[in-house]
What does this fold into?
Amino acid sequence: MATKKHKVTGTSMWAKVFEHNAELKDWQGNPHPFGKQFKIDVILDKENKAVYKASGTSGKGKFDDDGNFLATFKRKEKERFDWAGGPPKVINEDGTPFTGSIIPNGSIVEVEFTVYTTSMSPGTRLEQVRILELVKLEEKEEAKPSIESSKTTVNTDIPF
It folds into this structure.
């Protein structure tokens, strides 16, 4: 199998594709031997799931609690070749570099990934994330304690 690039479109979940929010440790809490890991989960519809499966990737995907098919795309910080490591390219729909600091859950993205031959099984590498529709984050209102609620009395009666 030769190296081939593929694209799928879906809803992003838990995007860790920037230097400041990349994964530093594995699920057991051990540091990755290759430095940071850039990662994004994408919910795929039937058509995009078919493209993902037909790509020849060794990634299996999984189903979330709502029954949606979820594919995970990863990229290592340090690879054997410089061009294969580091953060993926993150761009806006028009191709300009994305200047934000996070991709909120629920944003619509197009993920470009490469499937390549290895001695064991086909390898898959995240190449680029194109943001098609960015979800706006709503600002959280801070709960400020009211003065009246802080004026509580303490019961000083001794029960015995």
Observations:
- The two ends are 82 Å apart (CA to CA).
